[in-house]
Amino acid sequence: MTERLQVGAFRLASRMTDVAPSAVREILKVAEQPEMLSFAGGLPAPELFPVEAIAEAYAQVLAEEGKQALQYGVSEGHGPLREWIAARLTQRGLATSPEQLLITHGSQQGIDLVARALLDRGDRVIVEDPTYLAALQAFSTYEVTLVPVPSDAEGMQVDGLEEVFRRERPALLYIVPEFQNPKGTSLALPRRRKLLELARRHGVPVLEDDPYGEIRFAGRAGPSLAALDSEQVIQLGTFSKTLAPGMRIGWVRAPVEVLSRLTILKQATDLHTSTLNQRAVTRLLATFDYEGHLEKLRKVYRVRADAMDQALCRAMPPGTSWTHPEGGLFLWLQLPAGIVDDAVFQAAIARGIAVVPGHPFFARGLDHGHLRLNFSNRSEALIDTGMGILGEVVGELGAAASRAVVQGVASPRPRP
Amino acid sequence: MTERLQVGAFRLASRMTDVAPSAVREILKVAEQPEMLSFAGGLPAPELFPVEAIAEAYAQVLAEEGKQALQYGVSEGHGPLREWIAARLTQRGLATSPEQLLITHGSQQGIDLVARALLDRGDRVIVEDPTYLAALQAFSTYEVTLVPVPSDAEGMQVDGLEEVFRRERPALLYIVPEFQNPKGTSLALPRRRKLLELARRHGVPVLEDDPYGEIRFAGRAGPSLAALDSEQVIQLGTFSKTLAPGMRIGWVRAPVEVLSRLTILKQATDLHTSTLNQRAVTRLLATFDYEGHLEKLRKVYRVRADAMDQALCRAMPPGTSWTHPEGGLFLWLQLPAGIVDDAVFQAAIARGIAVVPGHPFFARGLDHGHLRLNFSNRSEALIDTGMGILGEVVGELGAAASRAVVQGVASPRPRP
């Protein structure tokens, strides 16, 4: 048993011993100061929020069904919203019934509920390395051991996966197969098949997190993991990237027998997701041009991703490389050898530019050679300005590193 | 280690072994059917929701700060809302700074986050017997042992508490001191002092759940537990009973060092509470007559509580007794000896009346002699009708029980 911390009159649970304030949380506080030109947050473009249509939906719901919308609701979620999502998933190639869906408070809550339903202390959880930081945090509160599996431009490398499954006997594999955070890369179809085949053979449940799948602006969508194996996979979705995050509406799709357990946990956790927000989203989806809205979103994000790619081409010194996402919100930049992510972060902040260092996205936090760049939240002009300054910062740090090496000073890259 | 259940491809965590569908959840599904005259739910009166003022607040927020209200927000909650709540608590006698407050997704989430921060598997949690059912459920997902302490008309009996503390060495004491659910009783002031003195001496943290404190319609408020000892107590609050539950806005008040840990857990759980709902509530509180609204609410609830009391006087057979709450939503009825809560539930449902059997509110579920009655959700006329029928049902079951005793048939009350 881990020793428990005492904070004033309160003795904390063992799980709190490793729960530290997120460094990225502190970074984002600096990054989101108004004077900062930030590419740090995982923020959708607020100028594309359908604010007027949302306002109209709230007005209609409160005028026509106000008493129901403000009352307690059922834990599984608002029926018509579950029906809409089931129809949408079915249309996108994943046959789904409303009974397979639980409405959650954003898809982050889906991660938490699935972790609570499936993970005991000491369990192993397979994650792509790097992966979504807040998923790592959610898992860590269940006192599990994270087992990172390396990735490349085609997503998680599945060649060594069978050996990992044999050795670790994991309780869960967590993955964002489409435009993952932080890299923007997707899992190639042959790897999806291989991963699922191994998962079935070794009895490893798969948690597929799909916040960005609807934001594909290039290439062609393949089948989701859940579409390839509905019995082995729990899938998470959200309206945070397609409509707006501030309403906190996401969902879990799972086999009915698992979903009923998740629903009990949902009730114990927070009774149910906001009735008003669920009804307003339902109304919105019934009344406005969702497809047209998504098309606009994809078009703007494609332009911004291209703008960032081209600005990086112009600004970055040799030895820098980055991913070329076909969707989502992020690209992932590899710094020239010898340049440390934290040093870039500090120097960029001093120049009024915010980015996120890459190391917190690695399960063990040891790789200091990357940055995550968000392209969805700024205009092309600001992207151009920002990447220009970032290129200068990286160039200057590179020049300093070269001088240091020439002068025999140790490399500033921290040791693992 | 508990054996883990396998559900299809998914092996569940040990904590799920004892997580069963809530019987009350199923009861409420029956009770809330439209043709049913229900006193079962814990529902505030929807005709008193300030629907128009809420609609105006959403309209204003979306018109004037739509982009911010629909974007991601900080985990601790919207600053101006924390400031408003801090000022309100201070005004009510509990000096509070915004830094001591975390905005949660209803106060149920506060119970869950505090449990996650403080409870290890196997810990002991002291609860009043009976107490709020969904708190019992939340604690049970942390695999703790519940230690029930009996209560009477003045709340938890504190005379034996020191021995319980010595024997059990509890990690937490959970209590609803004002108009508790299901009984409607409050903890007397001398007991509050005694409880806190013992808690301090034995190092037992106290979780004070206060959803109903603002709904006092008779008698005079005493100091809350947190007001008596701010360092030993975490207090939960909510707008679910004062404004409306459908927006899911509650809060945790804790010492700053504990609050910072709860905020990290909040982030891992669901990032943050709906930005839009937080800003709309902030706007509402700044623009409408909250005090006047509360006065109206208290007045209506007092009339309904009185109506229920009087209707029960008229309708109930001898041997029945009930509590006389000075606030909140519920009263608690003790059935005549030999009459079982489930039998009353079934017979009442057959007559179109829904109530909640009392046994699920007891930590061990063994006392079958009570009903919980909600008085806030129906008009005086319907309360009169409903209690009349309920009185007939109880009278008939009592007559049947007497005949059975006379004829030598075993009492239908289940054995513990």
Give a concise summary:
Helices cover about 45% and strands about 15% of the residues of chain A. Chain A has 13 helices and 16 strands.
Could you describe the 3D structure shown?
2 copies of one chain form a homodimer. Chain A is of the alpha/beta class and 416 residues long. Helices cover 43% and strands 14% of the residues of chain A. Chain A has 13 helices and 16 strands. In chain A, the strands form 4 sheets. The first copy, chain A, has an 8-stranded mixed β-sheet, with helices on both faces. Chain A has a 4-stranded antiparallel β-sheet with strand order 12-13-16-15. Chain A starts with 5 loop residues before the first strand and ends in a 10-residue tail after the last helix. Residues 410-416 of chain A have low confidence and may be disordered. Chains A and B meet through strand 2, helix 2, helix 4, helix 5 and helix 9 of A and strand 2, helix 2, helix 4, helix 5 and helix 9 of B.
